[in-house]
Write a structure and sequence with these properties.
The protein is mainly alpha-helical and 214 residues long. It has 2 domains: 2-87 and 179-206, Herpes Virus-1 (2-Layer Sandwich), CATH 3.30.40.10; 92-177. It is built from 6 helices and 4 strands. Bound molecules: zinc ion (2 copies). GO terms for molecular function: ubiquitin protein ligase activity; zinc ion binding.
């Protein structure tokens, strides 16, 4: 009786597993490997050497992924795509919502630059004038003022270069990962995939599909 109960429970569990696995399996309709949508809104392409359920993809999904990842090859089969990359202009960066923090720091640094530049110039000029006046009367003070001028200008120059480099690097990084990517796919590829879809549908209607989804 105990064995019977176990087998009953096991059988019950197994039937549950079978029902779950059959319901979780997607239909035979081809779908995009990135967004998992079908070909109702956009034609599915097979632009690389991937096979099985991973071979089909929407052109727009692939272009978006290639732009965001800044690559030009398939991550699975390493097929090199023929691409056209169009960098976005500075005006797009100014409107991009994800770059809000970078824009704030840039404007903050620009305001600092506008204030510090005249202040540094005036201080430098005063130090040079003072050093010139003290050159004959007190040479030690003149040397001290000259060193102060040099230190002031060095700090000002260093800050300017570092902050400008930082903002230029941020902008370049944004431009690299926000390019408009266009796939250059020959028309024969799309025709080929359409033919494969129809033959696949015919064969699947005749016999149950044995393809496993990875
Ligand atoms: Zn898609
Ligand atoms: Zn591939």
């Amino acid at each position: 009786q105990y064995v019977m109960e176990v087998s009953n429970i096991a059988g019950h569990h197994l039937s549950e597993v079978v029902s779950i696995s059959t319901t979780s399996l997607p239909s035979d309709d081809p779908f995009c490997r990135i967004c998992h949508e079908g070909s109702s809104n956009e034609e599915l392409l097979s632009p690389c050497e991937c096979n099985g359920s991973l071979k089909l993809v929407h052109g727009s999904c692939l272009e978006h992924w290639l732009s965001a990842s800044n690559t030009s090859h398939c991550e699975l089969c390493h097929f090199e795509f023929a691409l056209e990359r169009l960098p976005k202009p500075l005006s797009e960066w100014l409107k991009h919502p994800g770059m809000h923090h970078a824009r704030l720091t840039l404007f903050g640094d620009l305001i600092c630059f506008m204030f510090i530049t005249p202040l540094a110039s005036l201080s430098g000029w005063l130090c040079v004038q003072g050093a010139r006046d003290l050159y004959y009367s007190s040479s030690m003070e003149a040397i001290g003022l000259s060193i102060l001028t040099l230190a002031l200008l060095t700090i000002y120059g260093f800050w300017t270069i570092v902050s400008f480099r930082y903002h230029i690097l941020l902008f370049r990084k944004w431009r690299q990962t926000n390019q408009e990517v266009r796939l250059l796919i020959p028309t024969s590829v799309t025709l080929l995939t359409n033919q494969q879809h129809t033959t696949c549908k015919i064969s699947s209607s005749r016999e149950p599909s044995k393809e496993t989804i990875v």
